[in-house]
Write a structure and sequence with these properties.
single chain, mainly alpha, Four Helix Bundle (Hemerythrin (Met), subunit A), two-stranded antiparallel sheet, 62% helix
Amino acid sequence: MSDATPELPPSVQPPQRPKRKGIYILPNAITVSALFASFYSIVMAMDGKFEIAAIGIFAAAVLDSLDGRVARMTGASSTFGEQMDSLCDMVSFGAAPALIMYEWALKDLGRTGWIPAFVYIACAALRLARFNTNIGIVDKRFFQGLPSPAAAAMVMGLIWVMDDTGFKDAGRIPWLAVTAWIVTFFAGASMVTNAPYYSFKDVSAMKSVPFIVIVAIAMGIAVISQHPPFAIFALFCAYGLSGYAVYFYRRAKGLRTSVIATSTDEPEESGLHR
């Protein structure tokens, strides 16, 4: 008589335990590094070291631009990584810039200073939510609204320029506090507009370019090196205005201004895609 356990029929087989998925370390480590840079910036702002705080947000932006590219190049893309990146972007380019700007210039305005700071952080959240919703239906050559890293660069660029110039107590300088109010509000509102901002995603580092392009890059580096805070701030201000320039130019020419490539099949969310 055999002691072997009889094999169960397929209909009563015990359920197979799903295989655990690991987390890709390299792209997520870069994302966490960007999160730490933004956390460090907030701490530096609380200590009154606003120039270091601004540089920290720029460092977070550089790291944010790398994690997705590294994930695609190494075949390490994942849903977890996408969600992690989005949450870290909210901290790095939404909460951190708003808090740093409030601490730098807006808190001395009383409750009036709450307005641009909250508008900025709310618009950053709305912008990221709309971006995640519109993946796959937006023309990849353009962003719908100002990207949150560029908005953060505008806000932090103002702080960096003024702190480097010697304005250490911005909240007590009326014209500078008003300028900070306007720049923060503009950057926040621009994130939720439908103005098309060029994404540079169709620029490939693997393609050959004319010799003059390399010369222009060298000249650009030389110009930026003369005064990095002002040059970077001016560059992102120009980018912040470029979306409106493209929008009104295309409207004047009777061209299509929407960056939505296809229609959505979810009518209840149609307002997100206009």
